[in-house]
Amino acid sequence: MAALPPNPVPVAYQGGTPAVPVWLNKGDNAWQMISATLVGLQSVPGLVILYGSIVKKKWAVNSAFMALYAFAAVVLCWVIWGYKMSFGHKLLPFWGKAGPALGQKYLVNQALLPATTQFYDDGRVETAMVTPFYPMASMVWFQCVFAGITLVILAGSVLGRMSFKAWMAFVPLWLTFCYTVGAFSLWGGGFLFHWGVMDYSGGYVIHLSSGIAGFTAAYWVGPRSKKDRERFPPNNVLLMLAGAGLLWMGWAGFNGGDPYSANVDSSMAVLNTNICAATSLLVWTWLDVIFFKKPSVIGAVQGMITGLVSITPGAGLVQGWAAIVFGILSGSVPWFTMMIVHKRWSLLQHIDDTLGVFHTHAIAGILGGVLTGLLAEPQLCAMFLPVVNSKGGVYGGSGGIQILKQLAGGGFIIGWNLVVTSIICVAINLIVPLRMTEEQLLIGDDAVHGEEAYALWGDGEKYDSTRHGQYSDDTSHNKASIGATQVV
To answer: Which sequence ranges are marked TM in the entry (predicted)?
Structure first.
């Protein structure tokens, strides 16, 4: 993702500012707003539905609500201070100055600003500016939905036991002190951006950071109840697939919108995204069949997600054959870490990462970043990256150093999120407990929110057979009849 300029300057027009100024590219502006909407739909309702259905019945409301709350809270924090910290004037080499992104000045086109270019003795040319021909308001919203989905992904690690009040405090703090640092460093003109670390659409900024931070937060919050850890079936597999489908299709905006234009690079990014996701899903399913003798729907969804995540750092920077390579590795490496390494490594067993975000996002994200450093094609890089002569290691010359840059960039994101997420969790716990009470852990949604996802056969409720069919309200005598549909 290319960096953005810090602050547009309003431009006066004779007779007032026209609603459709001469510099506005309607096609690019429409695509950018559509892309932002697609990414927003990945969170609301995509991950809201997926989270609410993939967890145990008693946590359906809480899990969906954590995702919904995170998205809403990020929107407000983003326009008040988060956007400028990610894409504003430099405060530190890895952080921008806070400030609001509100007002009519964000209706101005940033291409009207003069470009600032840096030239180097070795022939490299770097610039922290891009010039899409549409209002910055479109860009503020596009970047906002990326920030939102990062917190929603992170929530997947702490479902089923984190106090909602603690989550309300965690969201703005993590956005401020973790997300904005990664975004500025890699996209907003920070030191990793100028060094030439490639992160086309958030493999590091979004997925690696959320995976590491979620894993870290899971450690501090502690594990789910013993009963939940032993048995945690999804309450609605078909609804889970609906949420997963929204996530997959929404990725067209996730990766296709990052050239900031409806251009050939965006088309390549969308195609590569789908190639990799499909390949990864198939590989994960094949491995399940080979080693466990049964194809798993949940496993297929995990393979789909790891494919989408791994291609994200290089979606518009690699060729179609490379997207297949990404998919083969993203369907197998995270599968191996989740199904084999996780079960044998005591540290991973000790930390209760509810939805395996560490494997599906952190492992897949760093894998995609390294593969981008290996397979990024020079001509595609030239279409997108501000650092000239950028290329992957397989293309020779200076390309070999790119892999080391990718590893170093990933190392910074990992280290920062481990430390700062820990500080945030410890600080919150001094004010409000990170963890739910034992009573809440036992009962679930009804104790936490006073609401249940499904009233049918709810705890303490009477089942009216005259209205709902042949079964009595004593479900214990009807297990043979309703066992196939009753998931708790």
So the answer is: 30-52, 64-83, 139-159, 171-192, 204-222, 234-254, 266-285, 297-315, 321-341, 362-387, 407-432
